[in-house]
Automatic annotation (TrEMBL), chains A, B, C, D:
Enzyme nomenclature, EC number: 1.13.11.4
Entry protein name: Gentisate 1,2-dioxygenase
Keywords: Dioxygenase, Oxidoreductase
InterPro entries, per the entry: Cupin_2 (IPR013096), GDO-like (IPR047183), RmlC-like_jellyroll (IPR014710), RmlC_Cupin_sf (IPR011051)
Key word Transport present: no
Sequence ranges assigned to domain Cupin type-2 in this UniProt record: 100-166
Keyword Transmembrane helix found: no
Top-level lineage group: Bacteria
One Pfam family it belongs to: Cupin_2
CDD domains recorded: cupin_GDO-like_C, cupin_GDO-like_N
Source organism per UniProt: Microbacterium pseudoresistens
Gene3D superfamilies tied to this protein: Jelly Rolls
Length: 361, 361, 361, 361
């Protein structure tokens, strides 16, 4: 029994009667449950877990055969349901992660909601996400934003299906009761298929802001972060390291954070996203962090270790790291990974802590 | 049935098999539960509720007779357990509120935790809260801070018991998994009983900062906001209004926000606290806000209306307003109220929305 | 000759001709004047200087006999004209400081300007500064604000004259060309004489903000920082130090910064103000800072050392410290000093550096 | 005579004696000079002025023949000396602008200073600026940063001379006394000639930040903003406008601001830089702004109007706009312009005002 709940106190009739009256008046004593609500270190109900792309994709395809997409269900999205979280469609207490699947020539209708959302494409192409009327192409390696309260739909212009992952702050917004939702049009508002979006043409230039866009931007105005730039950025870090210059997080470990060019912060108020590249053979030290995250392997093979789990992973595999669980990465080949987390929530509320094995911090 | 969950789709054997495989792989479809996780407007599981001081205080006193205070249970605190929240000791999904009771000459031992905490005193005096070794007197009308990770204990130096309310962000920190906890000494580290704390002597001067305290202060360094100043501030607003000058929130309604003098923001990263005074006869318009709050009547009589509930309230009564539930205040006599909420969380994550009846916003 | 201007180059006819053509085209070579415009350390043209209250006050009184106050001249203010600055009425390149004098029952008419201004009262009382229609009493030890673009006038309601000092950012605004100016009424708009202003009634409560004042405040809304609070704040620091607690800047040296309660920053965008109290016998270490400042002795006797000057000072004496000149304070008795500086300018532009003798920094 | 200096007061002997005593005590009355130091609107001593590239370049070339570059003079830079500013090498009260010239295989030695500096290249290539050991190639259209206190030198690796413009905050730092200066090596520390710098490889990716660079960056870490991106960004704005989407500042007028990707703000604390492209035939409305700026034509032909001056301009021509002087642009052909200004200074000190003819503001 936890020291902090142990009052060394027999449950007398008088005490039983007191507790009955507490119940009657919608009250609850601290002293019997302190250790449950105030733990020594964060102890998430969410558990470390691995979802294999080899399992997810066939189930998404089967859903494509059996379940239509359209108004009502809105999206053919299948969420990671962390086994520790009572069967709710939540990857962690704050993060929603799902595989979404759109068949040839299908449309997922437009809607908007307070919840912030992104897409990350691990394979395929041919779908456009239309954000407030701006068509955004989706291709392997791209990271796309649909920040809160922007209308958005998806449509597949090809004869091939396409699948990708969605990330949202749905569990957090559900818990803290902040969500609004509105339907938009049943079809998307623009079926054109440009290579890049208008938002990118205006905003995706390194260090350059349009003078017409100097007002406050809570979330990043860059609709899509293209693979070409991400790949180049992490490759450059490893090259600089090889040339003897500081550039990487640690030896053999390159990483970028997707950022809001209008303030240098995270892309959206509640979600952080990063891309990591490990040189073949690299092993990271063990880390613990306050807050939860999800990794998806983008390319290569290796191991992700979370607490006692040592998982061999490959393209598309998804791993959840609950708050304060130790994790490390091991790259068998060059290993590319996408990561997203609730770090902006943790940091804005000043709860951040980090522990890196072997380092003072 | 909610339009958004209605897929007009019979549950065939094939679909049943698909859903079984989802379960098997810890997956969950969006299309059957969209309306539950993404509601049109915030629909909190927490319900509007009233706790009467006349019920709370006798139960606290009875606890004083039956339950010791000390290491393990740590505090003789009895939490408001919102009937919508499964019996957990949570006033709202983000807020903990409790009545705490300390008998004559008792000590509640020192500990510290990541969770932010405050005390508000609706009656009585004679207890000192010792925060990192600084004794802070507690008296009627005072608002005291113990921000995250500060050691703190309480001791009662009189022959009378004392009760007050505690407010913390325990439910939020429990949900997002950010809490750390450490025991301190079994007794408080300083039993002296100064009128005001060292923190106040250094910091509680209007608009004056010590040159020795220019570093970053995430939370307010003012250990206690004394009743004398709060009373004077709201009184002045009503006087200014009576003299024809802008000063109040609206006709007959004065209010202050307790603030962090080092940045003008909320006293702590996760909790907002305010004090309101309504002139006799004042009725506020109906308001809805994203985020939850708790009111405690400090003085006077009136009504608090939340959704369909019209509650007559008096000194010490506590009312919970869940997110987006409409509320209004009606002052039968001059009515003084203390309020605390999760507004800093909502605003830092950019989810704020407000609706005031009869006003454009 | 400065190494950096020494090109070891004879001034040939060809070069002379080149320089003539530079002149003709409004051009100027860097190589002949680098050492003048880019010095090793800041070398201000302003010089350390002392103005004695015993000289200033009689001249102000004589001005009162000879010079009317009213529309046109606007103010009977006599500025400190730093001997290094070509006779211009500038205490330093950024700071204006003047003694202002108002005879019995005189009015200085209302006007407004972009320049930020304050008053500090070293002796006397009986004048009210009316800021945007809000009468603000002036008494010994008070520090009053009239931030940019607020209408303001002064009137003396007594049979005694009164003198005080004005501080403004006039030299800076003159140099960088930012000033706008408008006349207001010839008389002040409100001749009432309340003890404290409406702005103070709304804002001068420690850590409490009116809910009606949550919008952006670039400058402090506290119209006057009263002596009572300042005195109490520095006294408390010395007492805390005597009791063994950290509170002072350094042994025997208490100080507060006047601050904007809405953001914790300086009272105005361009001017910092502080109040210092040294215990009898205290000597501060020698300091150099980027940026210029002015000290005024409020009470007591001691020495202010600036570069090679050792000045014995007493009540009302004013000393200018140009940028990067070393300074120290020596308290013969308990020594109270008011200080103002251009530190917000220096810090906002990221030019701050400090050197304290005997300390790593 | 200005109303505000007109005291309607004869200069009596008594007054003359008073003024003599003012002089003797280093004092200066406000009432005789108010209108000079507090003008109705900003009235800069700097005048609107045009420097023609056709004049500048030959003089720079001639300097190359007559004046060596090296330790002491440090740079073969010829500064624009605004005719209103007493022959000092200042384009405006806050801005230094110069043409710098480096002959074949010459080196300008390394040094560092508090002053922020940039280079903009209107023609040519072949010089590398080495910033803290990182070689940064200079080519037509590039905008390069050397923020305060970074060591930097230049070297020309070709058989051709090269000229470009330097922009610095020297006049401001000279006036407010903030400058420090140190010599570095006589030669640059790295003579390698990479296409792009290490800083760009790490930082010049749209919206991507290296995880190794999350600390505070007061100034932009992007060493060079390449022409390729700038050109693409302004071209995209005009295309978007042509397609019917909001993108430009106003009809026919595209513009970007060079920004610090770590906070979205200006590239350096004291200097703003922008690039503008006007469609052929575009005329901008007349604008007045607080703060001074310099335009350089990058390509095309047109007119720059400042106050009463209508200047026909072409590639390389430089025009100074003092504070609050009205200006407009007229594009005879497509017109590309680089602009830099002291806007960050003005805005950080809260002195900004803008007036656009025909628009409410």
């Amino acid at each position: 029994m936890d020291e902090r709940n142990d009052m060394d106190q027999p449950l007398t009739d008088e005490l039983r009667e007191l507790y009955r009256r507490f119940d009657e008046h919608a009250l609850s004593p601290l002293w019997t449950q302190l250790a449950d609500v105030m733990t020594d270190v964060p102890k998430s109900r969410a558990v470390p877990f691995l979802w294999r792309w080899a399992d997810l994709l066939p189930l998404a395809e089967r859903s494509g055969e059996l379940v239509p997409v359209g108004r009502g269900g809105e999206r053919r999205a299948i969420a990671l349901a962390n086994p520790g979280l009572d069967g709710r469609p939540f990857a962690t207490p704050t993060i929603w992660a799902a595989i979404q699947y759109l068949g040839p020539h299908e449309t997922a209708p437009e809607h908007r909601h307070s919840q912030n959302a992104f897409r990350f494409v691990v394979e395929g192409e041919g779908v456009w996400t239309v954000v407030n009327g701006d068509p955004v192409a989706m291709r392997r390696g791209d990271f796309l934003l649909t920040p809160g309260w922007n209308f958005h739909g998806h449509h597949n212009e090809t004869d091939q299906p396409m699948a990708w992952i969605d990330g949202l702050d749905v569990p957090l917004s559900d818990y803290i009761d902040v969500g609004f939702f509105e339907f938009g049009t049943e079809r998307v508002t623009d079926y054109s298929t440009p290579d890049i979006s208008r938002a990118e043409r205006l905003w995706a230039h390194p260090g350059l802001r349009p003078l017409s866009g100097l007002n406050r931007h809570v979330n990043s105005p860059i609709a899509a972060y293209r693979w070409e730039y991400t790949d180049r950025a992490v490759a450059a870090q490893l090259e600089l390291e090889a040339e003897g210059h500081p550039a990487t997080v640690e030896q053999g470990h390159a990483a970028i954070r997707y950022s809001n060019p209008t303030n240098g912060g995270d892309v959206m108020s509640t979600l952080r996203a990063e891309f990591h590249r490990l040189r073949e053979g690299t092993q990271t030290p063990s880390r613990r962090e306050v807050g939860s995250s999800v990794w998806q392997v983008f390319d290569g093979r290796g191991e992700i270790v979370v607490a006692d789990n040592v998982w061999k992973v490959e393209k598309g595999d998804l791993v959840v790291v609950p708050s304060w669980e130790p994790w490390e990465l091991r790259a068998e080949t060059q290993l590319d990974l996408f990561r997203f987390s609730d770090a902006p929530v943790i940091e804005r509320l000043n709860f951040e802590r980090t522990f890196v094995e072997g380092r003072e911090r």
